[in-house]
């Protein structure tokens, strides 16, 4: 499958999923109330923390699937590894989901600041969440197989369909049965079952058939041992990532009222769209880079890496800068609530900028993943965990959402300026500064300049449509400046213009 098609399909799918996920939220708040939406935000956070139980298995099955298709592993060994990981996934899903179920009463009574919702309704919602979280987490095994096989066009279409059911399909259901947390989360449970079934069926078509194997698969965990070091390293990396990205949300869920937490979640969710936008590129290049490294084509692997960096800088970087400078009019156009927009805009600006730096800093992980060497990432994250998580806790506890936002921004600036340079210097000497200047600085700089200049001209209107047009217009010029700053884009545009003039 073409890398370009995979990236395009993934971008289309993620763009669609992100768009409907964001556009539909004001309706949730309007009909369900801010407190009920706070439960939805808590549900999202639970899924992130549940991923700690992954212990590196999802990235491992994706990487091993790519290696199998690259000829580095036999069909029998791959099926044996898949069966072993399936058993581990199932055991962890049952154990983790059951633990969340048992703790639902404690969370409702002693952690969440519930003001108006009946406590019993909150407990039931949390119990349903526990099952849904376990089901959606186990989907990672089958999604890893599909991603590793580079079947991203199918996966993109499937993700878009599931998102339509999850975000849009719930509205007529709640309209008929009632806009309550019970109805919402029960519906999400049914969609999680459907998602798991679809991914399982697709992965079965990708796995080598049993009758083609040289020997029986068996029921041994020995195939896991060769990849255990890699899996545990990824697990630690993921644990650090969850701790750094979700600690503020966990702390604030216990500090803020559930309604205020819902408003905070709105701002962070919009900023999180930047991460989602960059996701398709990582999904496409990680198996491709792994395959190229397995084939010994180092130069082509770095070419894919550099091109992807420019693409993410242009698309995700432009979105981050736009959200940072024009958060207030965007939130007002989206919600129609001046008070909510004023409260959430500073939070959105800080998290958007932080995410804009994070999507670039994440490339150091992609390189190490492809080369199968995460030891530098492991060592660095030990230091980051010791220094930065306490900062997030202090910022969120004493300064609320704004404090958490400043910590988040500072964290990701440090990651990009210091840690990525160190990793590149160790793994590909002489590569870092050309990569940073050509793929990041020359693209981000004009975007910042254009955004800062346009933001100096104050725009005030009570018309939500005009506010939306204003934000999109500014975003267009910011994106255009980033595109023209990219050498690869200028060359591509020049070829297209030359072809059209013939």
What does this structure look like?
The protein is mainly alpha-helical. It is globular and about 70 Å long. 85% of the residues lie in helices and 0% in strands. The protein folds into 2 domains: 1-217, no CATH class; 256-494, no CATH class. The two termini are 31 Å apart. It is built from 19 helices and no strands.
Number of domains: 2
Strand content: under 5%
Biggest β-sheet, characterized? none
Q: Could you give the order of the helices and strands?
A: HHHHHHHHHHHHHHHHHHH
Oligomer state of the chains in this structure: single chain
Low-confidence stretches: none
Q: What's the average pLDDT?
A: 80
Discrete helix count? 19
What global shape is seen? globular
Rounded to the nearest angstrom, the radius of gyration is: 23 Å
End-to-end separation: 31 Å
Task: Tell me the helix content.
Answer: over 70%
Count every beta strand, where a strand is a DSSP E run of 2 or more residues: 0
Structural class designation: mainly alpha
Which keywords apply here?
502 residues; single chain; 2 domains; mainly alpha
Overview in brief:
With 502 residues, the chain is mainly alpha-helical. 85% of the residues lie in helices and 0% in strands.
Topology:
Blueprint: H1 3-23, H2 25-32, H3 34-50, H4 57-69, H5 75-111, H6 119-148, H7 152-168, H8 170-177, H9 181-206, H10 225-255, H11 258-294, H12 298-325, H13 327-335, H14 338-361, H15 363-371, H16 375-427, H17 432-455, H18 464-485, H19 487-501
Helix pairs in contact: 1-7, 1-11, 2-3, 3-6, 3-10, 3-11, 4-5, 4-6, 4-11, 5-6, 6-9, 7-9, 8-9, 10-16, 11-12, 11-14, 11-15, 12-14, 12-17, 12-18, 13-14, 13-18, 14-16, 15-16, 17-18
